[in-house]
Amino acid sequence: MLRAAERQNSSMLCVGLDPEPSKFPAHLRGDASKIYDFCAAIVDATADLVIAFKPQIAYFAAHRAEEQLERLVAHMRRAAPQVPVILDAKRGDIGSTAEQYAIEAFERYGADAVTLSPFMGFDSVQPYLKYHGKGAFLLCRTSNPGGDDFQPQRLLDVPGQPRLYEHIAALAQGPWNLNGQLGLVVGATYPAEIERVRALAPTVPLLIPGVGAQGGDAVATVKAGWRSAGGETTAPIIVNSSRAILYASGGADFAAVARQEAIRTRDVLHACR
Questions:
Q1: Per-residue confidence (pLDDT) for residue 219, from 0 to 100
Q2: Looking at 90, 130, 134, 223, which residue is catalytic?
Q3: In terms of residue numbers, what domain contains 120?
Q4: pTM of the full predicted structure?
């Protein structure tokens, strides 16, 4: 799905859907009941420009808007059936609880993939992999400064003493990736680490937040993570931008301006190849 969307839309851009009613354009501002309307307008304006959409579940749940999220994913299926939907939930639990979270992501919301924390080990990931054709992106080297607390630390009891994020990348490329369903989350704010992750996981998709409002370098990101052979992408990257696109305008023209910002970002990423 990622490769097909990349080809059809000539894009590596993912639009993150993080609706904050306080930042909506003036005629919608502060009205949480308009989350669907706002996000659907963004989807319609950018459906032919993206490799994926990434709704962040907390921005919906905080406003009791889960039903609006269900409607939004159904709308994406109609408006952009070729574009994968990645539910950004960062779940991380084991056993029957993980099974319930998988039902939530894939059956209730109908997402194509979900973001997960791998901290509790493979049995916290495995329930999601039972869904044929669905994907899971494991947090690996995240864009936030606090990621330094754990992710670059070395594992002294693992052969070669890899850093934690390196170990996660190797697991996602190898023994955990039973059916080719895994990807990794790596932040655009750490291009050297993106390149290291890509070396350890040469074929898995990378979901890369941090371009745009967080200041990630688009050129360095694409150079570090995107790979091709014979003109075909071998290792997709999904470069996420949220606020810079969603809130490019505070007026009634918000969707049109969001489209222009999405075109600009898509074209910058494409040129970096």
A1: 83
A2: 90
A3: 2-271
A4: 0.95
